Amino acid sequence: MESRTFVLKHKLPIARVEKYWKGLEEGKVYGTVCKICGAKYYPPQVDCSKCFNSEVEWVEISGEGTIECFTQLHSFPQGFEFVGKPYTIAVAKFGDFKVMGWYEGEIPKVGEKVRIKTGKDETGVWKVYFEPVG
Amino acid sequence: MRVGIIGVGCSKFGVRDDVTLQELAFEAVKEAVEDAGISKEDIEMSVVGTAGTRSYELMPAVPINEYCGFAGKGPIRVEAACATGSAAVYTAYSTIKSGIADIVIAIGIEKMNEVDTPTSLAVGGRSGSYLWEFHQYGTTFPGYYAMHASAHMARYGTTEKQLAMVAVKNHRNAAKNPKAQFQKEITLEKALSSRYVAYPLRLFDCSAITDGSAAAILASEEKIKELGLKDKAVWIEGIGYSSDTANLSKRVDYVGLKATVEASRMAYKMAKIDDPVKQLDVAALHDCFTIAEIMAYEDLGFCKKGEGGKFIENGDSDFGGKIPVNTFGGLKAKGHPLGATGVGMVYEIVKQLRGEAGELQVDLKNYKGLTHNIGGTGHFGWVFILGV
Ligand SMILES: CC(C)(COP(=O)(O)OP(=O)(O)OC[C@H]1O[C@@H](n2cnc3c(N)ncnc32)[C@H](O)[C@@H]1OP(=O)(O)O)[C@@H](O)C(=O)NCCC(=O)NCCS
Ligand SMILES: [Zn+2]
């Protein structure tokens, strides 16, 4: 037998980190830095987990970074069928920040240099992309 | 006051479309009660560990408790992703330590096959930090471990062949375990030619989507004496726990799991273990993906960091090696029903230490064994040392 259909779709309360999501639309990737203790956050957060203050500065993460790890997915999760082909996720390091993003290319190498950019996928979700350098 | 395990049970793991969640729990609970040789009525509290979401029963602790005849006795429902079972055993342990109850049952259970594979992959992928990982990038669990594999291979030269050797060993053990999901051996060639699920991990580098249950009955030392079960009890000699950040972008590196390092150091200290390979006879490690077992050898101190690939290659984790690992087939081949996994590891080590593992019995010298259970990619870490 089959159960009754049960659809779960959640609201995402992004009010306090709206600058991040607006930034992606302008081609910018933001992290935050605590004004009191200097702790750095990516993904950005406006409360400091370290010193418990809530005063942060928004800083842009830009330029070239280095890939620390990656995978190319061949079995897709529900919600990502739209991609239609294997997609590559990587974490790259830009100075003091590490960022997750989609790699624009086939199989990267750990240690490879990439440039950070933003873009929108076919479902309208903005995200970080890594472009191979050279 | 010590706490001991007096009874264990485990269902057949696999695709269990033949039973409901309640019926599946009943299989392990009945076996554990019979194994302890006590009356079901002696159990004062039940802890139900299930990660949930993949089953239609969303708040499963009470339906399970009702079906197993424990209504009124708890239940406490616990969740720690793939380490849920260990959190359940810990909750039972601490309930006894607190003096609230003398006999507690920890039930670990998961039915993962009530949804399809894409849904299961999405549930796993959503259990890091949803907004910043799954929502944007469509992460999956095989993907999270594949990222660690890519870093480990790049830094230490670990090979796809070494990864596959973990699968071959664990399938070989599972072939002799009638409760395993995959009771069949595989060849290195078969593993190395299987399709990629999350590059560099192939199908045979992955644990499967599994339904299963396991149960362990714990009791205080006084109660164990009173019941005359002292000869049978397996004692919890060490417990260690830790965790790490939800977001992978906040990790220091991707070549090991800090939660394993910290949890094991804590458990070793409590159990007075300073040379695990020499002092332990057997270990059940969290091999949800082959790279996870290789990282665990290193992070648990079975070998030096970076030498996990050599450890499997040399047969050090096989029967007759330095320390047999995943003798019942591991998550890879025995199966990985999330909530049941940690309790299933306790089942395995209890059977080994009692000398009841049949064809899969290890040689006992120290009468001590270890369980290592990870939730997520080191999002939770639990290590137990058991001994008789
Ligand atoms: C790897 C994975 C995606 C494969 O799922 P799938 O593509 O739907 O595969 P299917 O269920 O269609 O199985 C195809 C065949 O491969 C076998 N198979 C499936 N998974 C397997 C595995 N992990 N190892 C070996 N064989 C496997 C099946 O038994 C089936 O064999 P058959 O054709 O002889 O019947 C899935 O097993 C998975 O997601 N595993 C990881 C689970 C996980 O992430 N757990 C961690 C906690 S979140
Ligand atoms: Zn601060």
Structural features:
heterodimer; A: 134 residues; mainly beta; OB fold (Dihydrolipoamide Acetyltransferase, E2P); 2 domains; five-stranded mixed beta barrel; three-stranded antiparallel β-sheet; B: 388 residues; alpha/beta; nine-stranded mixed β-sheet; 15 helices; 11 strands; globular; binds coenzyme A
Write the SSE topology.
The complex is a heterodimer of chains A (134) and B (388).
Chain A: H1 18-25, E1 29-34, E2 40-41, E3 56-61, E4 64-73, E5 87-94, E6 97-103, E7 113-120, E8 126-132
Chain B: E1 3-10, H1 21-36, E2 45-49, H2 61-67, E3 76-78, H3 84-97, E4 103-111, H4 117-125, H5 134-137, H6 141-156, H7 160-174, H8 188-192, E5 196-199, E6 201-202, E7 211-220, H9 221-226, E8 234-243, H10 258-271, H11 276-279, E9 282-284, H12 290-299, H13 308-313, H14 330-334, H15 338-353, E10 368-375, E11 380-387
Parallel strand pairs in B: 2-3, 2-4, 9-10
Antiparallel strand pairs in B: 1-7, 1-8, 4-7, 5-6, 8-11, 10-11
Helix pairs in contact in B: 1-2, 3-15, 7-12
The complex binds coenzyme A and zinc ion (ZN).
